[in-house]
Amino acid sequence: MTQNALDGIKVVDLSRALAGPWAAMTLGDMGADVIKVEEPGGGDATRGFPPFWNGESTYYMSANRNKRSMTLNLDSLEGQEIIKRLVAKADIVIESFRTGAMEKWGLGWQSLRELNPRLIYCAVSAVGREGPDKDRAGVDLLMQAYAGLMSITGEADGEPVRTGTSVVDLTTGANAAQGILAALYVRERTGKGQRIDVSLLGSVVTWLSYHAVAYFASGELPPRMGSRHPSVAPYGAFPTKDGYLVVAVALDSSWKRFCAALNRPDLIEDPRFAKNPMRITNRTELDDLISGILADRGAMEWAEIMDRHGVPCSPINSIDTVLALPQVLHQELVIDLPREDIPGLRMPGIAIRMSDTPGTARLPPPRLGEHTEAVLEELGFSPDEVTALREHGVL
Hints:
Blueprint: E1 10-14, H1 19-29, E2 33-38, E3 52-53, E4 56-57, H2 58-62, E5 67-71, H3 77-88, E6 92-95, H4 101-104, H5 109-115, E7 120-125, H6 140-146, H7 167-190, E8 195-199, H8 200-207, H9 209-218, E9 235-239, E10 244-248, H10 252-261, H11 276-281, H12 283-294, H13 299-308, E11 313-315, H14 319-323, H15 326-330, E12 334-336, E13 346-348, H16 372-378, H17 383-391
Parallel strand pairs: 1-2, 1-6, 2-5, 6-7, 7-8
Antiparallel strand pairs: 3-4, 9-10, 10-11, 12-13
């Protein structure tokens, strides 16, 4: 029987919202046993985010498959002791509380590492757990603004806009998972766990990438350019007869194929456009010329022509189109994960494909506290003890 890559790894997921839960779900997809600890009564705040599918938040479900949910009052001494019992047998803890919260409960890194020296502790925060702004709160939108992403996102003559999905949260979750996996590899060599800190701020600042390096080189701030690219042309969304077509001509060799697709071989050696730096200099003239040519046909017709010539292009697909693309379905990027109360549950699949230890979607997103008794039983609690904990407001 094929194993998952992280079979036998236990994760205590104390995180909320999107970044931390996304990291924990990634580990769950790879086979880890993820126990999601939620506040009694309401659980993860995203359980209240609409829209809902048979009463369950679609937002919550998107980041919480392959987990078991238990409820626990971390303000209670009994709840804190249960976390310690979980951690003693765990490999990984992920938390996203305000700076100092875990320490207040006696569950900070220093305390937990003494309890379990092999523990890998991942703290997810807005701007990092050290530094002058360490207490700053933040969500995806705020960090898109605070860390500069919105200053380069949007049309040149329009307002700054956020990206259409929560890229800061999702990237931070991916960074957390990457750091955790690296720490697991180190632990194999040293036998010791370590602390990992990831932040929304760090994710965006590193994303500034070539924009930041260009600024350091020139001192000039990058402008908003819509779908255009500061270093490549033609590159962006162009209007056609019935919609927009994205064209990404990054290489001079692609430019030649693009001109052939347009049936304009005369443009190949045109001194205004023959090389990419020239196309950048004359971008406005080039964009106007291309838009005029593309206006004669529809986006799909042009896409077929571009495909035949090997030009990177695409119509701007709607979500329903994407989720039904033959390539998406072949790659199992849409999966069915039925739950008793949501038999038609479908969601995006697992992007990381491994030949020998593939990830699997084994558990649908859990109902709040669905596995509380089972987890406590694994920790050695008797049914009477579980009942007492519930009566005392611990669960």
